[in-house]
Amino acid sequence: MTTQKPTASEIERAIRNVADFPKPGIQFKDITPVLADARLFNGCIDLLIDGFKPGDVDSVVGIDARGFIFAAAAAVKLEAGFVPVRKKGKLPYQTHEQSYELEYGSATIAMHVDALRPGSRVLLIDDLLATGGTAAAAVALVEKLGGKILESSFLIELKFLEGRKRLPGHPVRSIVAY
Ligand code: AMP
C-alpha cells in the first residue's frame, strides 16, 4: 500500500499554537501532534530533505532539542551522520562554543571539536526559525570546524522576524511559514 504524502498545509493544520508559553506574549508552535502522526512525521522529513539523496550530504546538524528529532530522522534517510549542536554544558567532550544575543541576555551553544571533518557537506535542521540567532550561531560553529552548509531547513518559519536575513550564503528552506 502506498500512503499519500502530506501537503504543507496538512502539516500546518497539525501544528498546535499554544499562547503565552513558556511566558506571556509567546505563541509557542507545538510540533508534537505532527510527530505523533506517522504519515505527517515521515512526510515532513521528506519535505525537509527534498532534493537531496543519499551521498549528497555528509552530516546533518540538528539544534537542541526539537531539531534533534527532525535532523536524526533526516540523517537516517540521507544515510548521513548526525551531529548535535547543544546548549552549553551538555556535551561531554571538548567543545567549540558560540554565543548569541536573545531579546533579554544571551545564550551559548556548543559542538564537539571533532564533530565534523573539514570540507564536510552539512545540512542544518531545526524545528523553527524565529530571529535566526540560534541558527546563525550553529552556522558559525559548523564553519569553525571547516564544514560547508549546503542548506538550512526548518519545519516552521516565523517570517515577520526575518531570521533568514541572518543566514546569508546558502539556501534557507521552510515548510510552513507564519
Ligand atoms: P531564534 O534563535 O530566535 O531563531 O529561535 C529559534 C529557536 O527557538 C528554535 O530552536 C526554536 O525551537 C525556538 N523557538 C523560538 N520561537 C519559538 C516559538 N514561537 N515556538 C516554538 N519554538 C520556538
Describe this structure in words.
- This protein has 178 residues and is α/β, with parallel strands linked by helices.
- The chain contains 5 helices and 9 strands; from the N terminus they run αββααβαββββαββ.
- Strands 5-6-4-3-7-8-9 form a 7-stranded mixed sheet, with helices on both faces. A two-stranded antiparallel sheet has the order 1-2.
- Helix 5 links the parallel strand 7 (121-129) and strand 8 (148-157).
- Helix 3 crosses helix 4.
- The longest helix is centred in the middle third of the chain and has 13 residues, at 66-78.
- The relative contact order is 0.16.
- The mean pLDDT is 97.
- The protein binds adenosine monophosphate (AMP).
Describe the secondary structure blueprint for this structure:
Elements (H helix, E strand, L loop, with lengths): L7 H7 L1 E4 L7 E4 L1 H5 L1 H11 L10 E5 L2 H13 L2 E7 L7 E7 L4 E7 L8 E9 L3 H12 L3 E10 L14 E6 L1
Parallel strand pairs: 3-4, 3-7, 7-8, 8-9
Antiparallel strand pairs: 1-2, 4-6, 5-6
